[in-house]
Amino acid sequence: MCKISIIVPVYNVEQYLEKCINSILAQTFRDIEILLVDDGSTDNSGEICDNYAKIDPRVKVIHKENGGLSDARNAGIKLAKGEYIGFIDSDDYIDEDMYEFLYTNIKKYNADLATCGIYDVHKDKEIKKLPYFSKLIDREEAIELVLDAKIIVANAVNKLYKKDLFNEVLYPKDTIAEDAAVILQIINQCNRIYADTTQKYYYYHRANSITSRKFTKKDLDIIDVWKANEKWIIDYYPSLYEKAHTRVCWSYFVILDKLVLIKEKEFDKEKKEIRKYLMKNIMFILKNKRLTMQRKLSTLLLIFGTNVYKLPVKYKYEKIKTIN
Q1: 231-259: buried (b, 16+ CB within 10 Å) or exposed (e) per residue?
Q2: Glycosyltransferase 2-like domain location, by residue (predicted)?
Q3: Would you say the pTM of this structure is higher than 0.85?
Q4: What tens digit of pLDDT does each residue of 156-176 get?
Q5: In order of start, what are the domains of the chain with their CATH numbers?
Q6: String of b and e for 278-317 (b: at least 16 CB within 10 Å)?
């Protein structure tokens, strides 16, 4: 039995893995177990995991057939012996006091869940600081903050959870938007959440990952997940409907931004459906104080079709490509 189980899904990340594991081993909070879940890696990632298990008894390795991020997390949850659970992606890293910081807040405020801020790390780009926020909140306020996507983000990784929160909730294996698919249900089980934006987690954006990955039908999951979340909000927190609907519109924008850059006609049907949805919601979007002026202007461009909408998206894409 230990205080914290840290679950790290691992898949073909030999270039980044040692930095990730070293940052966990350096934690000032020592009463931890580190569950490295090798999800069928075909590079040297599995061997790297085994080597760490030989030098530190807190490291335990699970080798399994490839099943995806959710399946790897769930495998770790089932074997976790800690009173609390944390997740880290294997190409990221953390400050040496992250888990001490989160554990202290959970105990001090008798919370079920504690959060910290995330540094977005890009090659050749300055790391941005977040506005400071630190407060004990209830589940409804926490859900509202997730919908706002500022103080609390849907990501699994920058949080410390009571293990009991996963007794009935596991990560869905059929979506790539797994974090957003469960975060509201997890928070809904909490009585007290301590939200803090002090940045302790380094989320590494790999060079060219934004511009080179091929779009697939699975990318559409983000829309389905946020539409399901919207339905759940209507049932349980109807006063938050407007914010939930804003997130749905946001998800449509995110996918359309990707689709308009595809030259093939494979996703023309989806492109038309997304345009139709956004046009149906045009007044909601234009009057929405939570959506940026850039999004509102792009909605106006969409009136003239996706080829016109594509122009600023392509410009932004070319800028990212140049930087990377």
Answers
A1: eebeeebeebeebbbbbbbbbbbebbbbb
A2: 5-169
A3: yes
A4: 999 999 999 999 999 999 899
A5: 4-205 (3.90.550.10), 217-322 (no CATH)
A6: beebeeebeebeebeeebeebbebbeeebeebbeebeeeb
